[in-house]
Amino acid sequence: MSPTPHVTIINPLAGALGHYARTLKSNLTDSGHDVTAVDLVEPSLADESRLTWVRRYVSALFRVRRAKPTGAVILAWPVLGYWDLVLARLILGHRRTTRLVMHDPVPLVRAVGYSAPARRIGCALSRRRTVIVHSTTAQEAITETTFGVDSPIVAHPLQATTHSCESTESNVPTERPVIRVLGQFKPDRDIQLLADLAVELAPRYSLEIHGRGWPHIDGWAVSDEFVDEDRLDHLLATSAAVLIPYRRFYQSGIAIRCFELGTPFVGPRCDALAQLYGPDSPLLVGSPADTSAWVRAVEQAATECRDALRLRAATATAEVSDAWRRELALH
């Protein structure tokens, strides 16, 4: 009998990517791997400098090399952008199966390690298939900015849930259903779209936004706050629908959480969301600037059968686990 393959997940954003890493561990376990998780809390939550965080990350790479000289390593977030590929090569070695998940190939905010030299050197020193992404949009961005480096698409981690606050029709207010936007504000959020939607939706729905950094938007009750995981699950589960009002993005963790819980979400018709619903779903909007199309999609979502969504998520979970098994079998 062959030994169980081992995988180490290093997650340097234990706060922001806690659910991502736990779900990935579950998918890998389901696919027959023995998994070790190494979590590092990010500076914003640990009250420490970015330099200290980087040092802890480098120390974690050395500890993994000593403790597990063989076995695959998945870097759940690039602490230093494309320089992480250099660190992985120097510390973990060139023979080990290593995967760096590139969530934002072109960051929305200023970040270290995405300059042309970093991309060239990092990709030149990395092995084939080291960088992986979760969408065609992300893959195209890497191809355009790294001179054609191979970046396979691997399904976003997914785990259909039976959490106690699972999304059910009985949890959702019926007299005045709640439409929510969740997550931290970033420059790609379409504020004008939300203002336009409020004019159409406010007479029939309660409209709420929860997340750090959001400005005031007419017609929306905005809570500028950090939302922990338990509260996020509750907010998702009690929403009639969740909006993904993004102009540019490579994947959406909020959409994934909705899908896992069986809460309908409405967003642009892009490949990251079409992977979950299918390309022809009426809950995806083909013309992102078309307010009336968003309104129709929201109305459809508010009446969507949640049992059907959960069944689809359960089927997709098994497919995701198999996708990761196949990816890590490729060296």
CATH superfamily of the largest domain: Glycogen Phosphorylase B
- Give the mean pLDDT: 91
Order of helices and strands: EHEHHEHEHEHEHEEHEHEHEHH
Structural Rg: 20 Å
What is the distance, rounded to the nearest whole angstrom, between the alpha carbons of the first and last residues? Answer: 21 Å
CATH hierarchy, class of the largest domain: Alpha Beta
Helical stretch tally: 12
Strand order of the largest sheet: 8-7-6-9-10-11
Number-wise, the strands total: 11
Comma- or semicolon-separated keywords:
single chain; 331 residues; alpha/beta; Rossmann fold; 6-stranded parallel beta sheet; 11 strands
Provide a short characterization of the protein structure:
By secondary structure, the chain is an alpha/beta fold. It has helices at residues 18-30, 43-46, 50-67, 83-92, 116-125, 136-145, 191-201, 229-237, 253-261, 271-277, 291-301, 306-328; strands spanning 6-11, 34-39, 72-75, 98-101, 131-132, 178-182, 206-210, 221-223, 241-243, 265-268, 284-285. It has two domains: 6-159 and 316-328, Glycogen Phosphorylase B (Rossmann fold); 169-313, Rossmann fold, CATH 3.40.50.2000.
